[in-house]
Amino acid sequence: MQNGNNGGAAERGALITLNEKFGKAEKARDTAFFEEALSDDLIFRRANGLIVTKQIFLADLKSPDNNFDRLDAEVEEPTVYDGAPATALVSVRVRAKGKRCTTEFNGLFRNTRFFVKENDRWRCVFWFNTKIE
Question: In terms of DSSP bridges, do strands 38-45 and 51-52 run parallel, antiparallel, or are they unpaired?
Fold first, then answer.
């Protein structure tokens, strides 16, 4: 396995675009996007420490009790690992404000996402969210 962003500019560009879409899709409650972008085996750790599956993430996304007033994402350069399958690590700084159930949130968060390339498509298998400000 090799590191070094050697997956090529096209792979890194595709990962940047995909991760920019994560924020837009989350704000728009676009479950169809996440059905495709998330692995069925997703493990997502929310900033509050709660671990959720893909099914729980999608259900939460649909809930009218959860919303975003603001969600801006800055995707950092992905690291692509060659191999079978190819994998990638992407870090995203997210400035978000909104409400999850009865709890309001506002701040800067670090989202770290691990992707596996399956059938020529990148799918997120691990997503770790941490509040940094």
Answer: antiparallel
Class of the CATH-defined domain 9-131: alpha beta
Domain ranges (residues) in the chain: 9-131
Return the H-helix or E-strand segment holding 26.
Answer: helix 9-28
Give the pTM: 0.88
**Which pLDDT tens digit goes with each residue over 65-86?**
887 788 889 999 999 998 889 9
**Preceding amide of 85 cis, omega within 30:** yes
Residue 73's SS3 state is strand
Rounded distance, CA 74 to CA 96, Å? 12
**21's tokens:** 């879409």
Closest by alpha carbon to 79, among 133, 2, 18, 24? 2
Question: 72 Cβ partners below 8 Å, 6+ apart?
Answer: 23, 94, 95, 96
Instruction: Kindly report the backbone phi and psi dihedral angles of residue 120, in degrees, each rounded to the nearest multiple of 5, phi listed first.
Output: 65, 20
